[in-house]
UniProtKB/TrEMBL annotation:
This is Ferredoxin--nitrite reductase, chloroplastic. Residues 1-59, 221-285 form the Nitrite/Sulfite reductase ferredoxin-like domain. It comes from Papaver somniferum (Opium poppy). Its EC number is 1.7.7.1. The lineage of its organism: Eukaryota, Viridiplantae, Streptophyta, Embryophyta, Tracheophyta. InterPro entries: NIR_SIR_4Fe-4S, NiRdtase/SiRdtase_haem-b_fer, Nit/Sulf_reduc_fer-like_dom_sf, NO2/SO3_Rdtase_4Fe4S_dom, NO2/SO3_Rdtase_4Fe4S_sf, NO2/SO3_Rdtase_FeS/sirohaem_BS. Its cofactor is [4Fe-4S] cluster; siroheme. It is an enzyme of class 1 (oxidoreductase). GO terms for molecular function: 4 iron, 4 sulfur cluster binding; ferredoxin-nitrite reductase activity; heme binding; metal ion binding. One of its GO terms (biological process) is nitrate assimilation. The keyword Ribosomal protein does not apply. It catalyses: 6 oxidized [2Fe-2S]-[ferredoxin] + NH4(+) + 2 H2O = nitrite + 6 reduced [2Fe-2S]-[ferredoxin] + 8 H(+). Pathway: Nitrogen metabolism; nitrate reduction (assimilation).
Length: 426
């Protein structure tokens, strides 16, 4: 597997085609994932090919440098940056600046290694909090102070097998021009390292509205640019094959501006589409057969980590199982609002089950006969947005074969689901 640096989840059709060409030659193991860090991962890569692949990455403006292990992970921002009519700030300049600083412009920066695994940073650009700031080690929240634009800082959000915690306010505000000095530590250490050795207290002029109904980015939506729209596509559990990527690149070229946007929910947005081309795009086979702009309601919020198909740390298979459970549950009950279901194969929680309405963390369980089998700890009640908080364990070590009836019961009791009428055959 190779993980990339893709600040703000912005990628080009050229980059997408190159990544597709890499995985194409690896057969059934060659695939790509959109990750919960708004990033690409390519899978099936063979070690002898890596030097050539890395040269190819550089040729299309990509790098895998400092993308995993003990480094700062991909800097996330609004997937609608620069095109959202209601955005607070275009996050792209800031996520690019952070990524350049952290990697020393892709030359490597030892000052930002030997960090805790999965050290995450986010820059918030909308009231919708698409960036999930409350689960980042450092999050920049737009706020004005004394007529200047800048950011209040949240710190300390993280997931690990031993402890999970939400980010808390640092009681600090930095002008937009000074976001880089704020990346190096908590308040006392930050103060020591700032040029003025001074850090202003947080601003009360928070630009993010506390009461805001999160918008759905699936489907067609007008941009701030007159005559243009973006289309949000559902990528089932974030998994793509080479042919999917080639086709997405073609669509981005033919209908948009040769650009794609990745989201932390493992989906893809095509921006900058002329309104006159929308109808033709919606009739493209890829949107009809694979990546729907109007996914079924229980699929909308479905997220899954890699699982044990490719990850040695995962205890259970996740992606195919997530789709199977969602499909079976959909046949049994009907819900009126999306329910976010997240799957993760192990306690490292790459699938971020703690932010889900219903989360499944892989474990080993025992069936009714006492036999060891694949199972999941079930989490309930995670929230994102202005009222964010983490989910709690609802039931431990449930055999995976028993998850469908359990989820059906949860949806009925907690989410107002009603049984579907099953048509009787003549």
């Amino acid at each position: 597997m190779m993980r990339l640096k893709l600040p703000n989840g912005v990628t080009t059709s050229e980059q997408t085609r190159y990544l597709a060409s890499v995985i194409k030659k690896y057969g059934k193991d060659g695939c790509a994932d959109v990750t919960t860090r708004q990033n690409w991962q390519i899978r099936g890569v063979e070690l002898p090919d890596v030097p050539e692949i890395m040269e190819g990455l550089l040729s299309v403006g990509l790098t895998s440098l400092q993308s995993g292990m003990d480094n700062v992970r991909n800097a996330v921002g609004s997937p609608l940056a620069g095109i959202d009519p209601l955005e607070i700030v275009d996050t792209r300049p800031y996520t690019n600046l952070l990524s350049q600083f952290i990697t020393d412009n892709s030359r490597g920066n030892l000052d930002f290694t030997n960090l805790p695994r999965k050290w995450n940073v986010a820059v918030v650009g909308t009231h919708d909090l698409y960036e999930h700031p409350h689960i980042n080690d450092l999050a920049y929240m737009p706020a004005t102070k004394n007529g200047r634009f800048g950011f209040n800082l949240l710190v300390g959000g993280f997931f690990s097998p031993k402890r999970c915690a939400e980010a808390i306010p640092l009681d600090a505000w930095v002008p937009a021009d000074d976001i880089i000095p704020g990346v190096e530590g908590f308040r006392s250490e930050v103060v020591k390292r700032l040029p003025q050795q001074e850090l202003e207290r947080s601003s009360e002029e928070d630009l993010v509205q506390a009461q805001w109904e999160r918008r759905d980015y699936f489907g067609v939506h007008p941009q701030k640019q007159e005559g243009l729209s973006f289309v949000g596509l559902h990528v089932p559990v974030g998994r793509l094959q080479a042919d999917d990527m080639f086709e997405l690149a073609r669509l981005a070229d033919e209908y948009g501006s040769s650009e794609l946007r990745l989201t932390v929910e493992q989906n893809i947005i095509i921006p900058n589409i002329e309104n006159s081309k929308i109808e033709k795009l919606l009739n493209e086979p890829l949107l009809k057969d694979r990546f729907s702009p109007e996914p079924p309601i229980l699929m909308k919020g479905l997220v899954a980590c890699t699982g044990n198909q490719f990850c040695g740390q995962a205890i259970i298979e996740t992606k195919a199982r997530a789709l199977q459970v969602a499909e079976e549950v959909h046949k049994l009950v009907e819900v009126t609002k999306p329910v976010r279901m997240h799957w993760t194969g192990c306690p490292n929680t790459c699938g971020q089950v703690q932010v889900a309405d219903i989360g499944f963390m892989g474990c080993m369980a025992r069936d009714e006969n006492g036999k060891i089998c694949e199972g999941a700890d079930v989490y309930l009640g995670g929230r994102i947005g202005s009222d964010s908080h983490l989910a709690e364990v609802y039931k431990k070590a449930v055999p995976v074969k028993n998850l469908v009836p359990l989820v059906v019961d949860i949806l009925k009791e907690k989410f107002g689901a009603v049984p579907r009428e099953i048509e009787e055959e003549d």
